[in-house]
Amino acid sequence: MNAPAVLIVEDEPDLRQLYALTLAKVGTAVDQASDVAHARQCLQAQRYSVLIIDMRLPDGSGLELLQELARAGRPERAIVVTAYGSADNAVQALKAGAFDYLTKPVSPARLRQAVVAALQASAAPSPTPALAAPDPSHNDALQQLVGDSEAMQAVRATVQRVARTMAPVLISGESGTGKELIARALHACSHRASGPFVAVNCGAIPPDLLESELFGHKRGAFTGASADRVGLFQAAHGGTLFLDEVADLPLPMQVKLLRALQERAVRPVGAVAEEPVDVRIVSATHKALAQLVQAGQFRHDLYYRLNVIPIHAPALREHPDDLPAIAVAILQRLAQRERLPAPPRLTEAALARLRRHPFPGNVRELENLLERALALHPGPTLDAEALALDAAAHGDAEIPADHDDAPLTRAELEARLQRNRWNQSRTARELGWTLAKLRYWMQRLGLAA
């Protein structure tokens, strides 16, 4: 009597029966509906834990039923089933509030995997209200998204609204704005919080090693492969895979990533069969990905799959009123790390000086600045003199005093960046600069994405 209830909405009797038999192994009670009208009757009679909804039904679409559930505030987790290749339908369903989607033909193992994940999400505690104080017992990562500005409230609200689905999320924003913190908050607020969070910087892995790093390899697959190796997809099984700087993926790797997203399976290098993986994908980039799609540098179909739920990480200059609170949070974290009895206090003069600074490096630059000040000026307070903005204004003490004279023209620097596929670390090494110096001149010349 206490078995979780699942409603299958499918017009093909054979498929309904197959789904029901498959879910019997999960230990669920199953009801069946052949069309939208029958499904409405079932939903009026009782509540369910999970719904499995076909997108094409004789008297309407599964999307309509999904939208009705959202308007009514129903708690059920909906898994939509779509025909092979109907990516548009899948994306529309996820945006409408579906927990996950499956592509026909649906294998029994894939169906059970999706339903178990939905049951786990359904049984998880409800998220805290969007603007309420988060529960520190499981939302520590959410608390790190500091600020009461409208921009930061919008970020936290979106995180809490979409964390408990399988919908892919694309986080955009300048370097140093805390995109990984947002990704970690998504993971912490989800039913996958007890699973692994695996972060990978796509621009930091050599292109010839990317496939092996992401999907793993078998022993003897290539020279040096002396043993089987688990890839990052497999390492993130049951949790979240964070693809940072996803725009840096080479086009051939984008094709393989798209297949992995579509099939929910990966094939290690040297393997003959694919391995199913259960991961939630969160991506991030500081580049204008839509422009790269138009330029043919990023696949449109992959962009469409990754950008189901967009979240913008605001630059520090977009919410300057949050700067004091962010600085206090950083100092508290640094004091804990250094085991100080209490974090130092910023004087009004120090705060005024920080407010006047443009912070092209955003929160990361602010953290570097405060860490330097804390190391060089120990004590209970940090005054304006402790903030060496002249030397650290752009995170790079090596920038010469006459830095108003650009060492390269904008066109020259842009050409070098394009030649290196906008890989900043590689470009900085080529120029003989530090990474901070490169980012400074990108900002000055209007090349910061």
TrEMBL record:
<keyword id="KW-0067">ATP-binding</keyword>
<dbReference type="InterPro" id="IPR002078">
    <property type="entry name" value="Sigma_54_int"/>
</dbReference>
<dbReference type="InterPro" id="IPR025662">
    <property type="entry name" value="Sigma_54_int_dom_ATP-bd_1"/>
</dbReference>
<feature type="domain" description="Response regulatory">
    <location>
        <begin position="5"/>
        <end position="119"/>
    </location>
</feature>
<dbReference type="Pfam" id="PF25601">
    <property type="entry name" value="AAA_lid_14"/>
</dbReference>
<dbReference type="InterPro" id="IPR011006">
    <property type="entry name" value="CheY-like_superfamily"/>
</dbReference>
<dbReference type="Pfam" id="PF02954">
    <property type="entry name" value="HTH_8"/>
</dbReference>
<dbReference type="GO" id="GO:0006355">
    <property type="term" value="P:regulation of DNA-templated transcription"/>
</dbReference>
<protein>
    <submittedName>
        <fullName>Transcriptional regulatory protein ZraR</fullName>
    </submittedName>
</protein>
<keyword id="KW-0238">DNA-binding</keyword>
<feature type="domain" description="Sigma-54 factor interaction">
    <location>
        <begin position="145"/>
        <end position="375"/>
    </location>
</feature>
<dbReference type="GO" id="GO:0000160">
    <property type="term" value="P:phosphorelay signal transduction system"/>
</dbReference>
<keyword id="KW-0547">Nucleotide-binding</keyword>
<dbReference type="InterPro" id="IPR003593">
    <property type="entry name" value="AAA+_ATPase"/>
</dbReference>
<dbReference type="Pfam" id="PF00158">
    <property type="entry name" value="Sigma54_activat"/>
</dbReference>
<dbReference type="Pfam" id="PF00072">
    <property type="entry name" value="Response_reg"/>
</dbReference>
<dbReference type="GO" id="GO:0005524">
    <property type="term" value="F:ATP binding"/>
</dbReference>
<dbReference type="InterPro" id="IPR009057">
    <property type="entry name" value="Homeodomain-like_sf"/>
</dbReference>
<keyword id="KW-0597">Phosphoprotein</keyword>
<dbReference type="InterPro" id="IPR058031">
    <property type="entry name" value="AAA_lid_NorR"/>
</dbReference>
<feature type="modified residue" description="4-aspartylphosphate">
    <location>
        <position position="54"/>
    </location>
</feature>
<keyword id="KW-0805">Transcription regulation</keyword>
<dbReference type="InterPro" id="IPR027417">
    <property type="entry name" value="P-loop_NTPase"/>
</dbReference>
<keyword id="KW-0804">Transcription</keyword>
<dbReference type="InterPro" id="IPR025944">
    <property type="entry name" value="Sigma_54_int_dom_CS"/>
</dbReference>
<dbReference type="InterPro" id="IPR002197">
    <property type="entry name" value="HTH_Fis"/>
</dbReference>
<dbReference type="InterPro" id="IPR001789">
    <property type="entry name" value="Sig_transdc_resp-reg_receiver"/>
</dbReference>
<dbReference type="GO" id="GO:0043565">
    <property type="term" value="F:sequence-specific DNA binding"/>
</dbReference>
<dbReference type="InterPro" id="IPR025943">
    <property type="entry name" value="Sigma_54_int_dom_ATP-bd_2"/>
</dbReference>
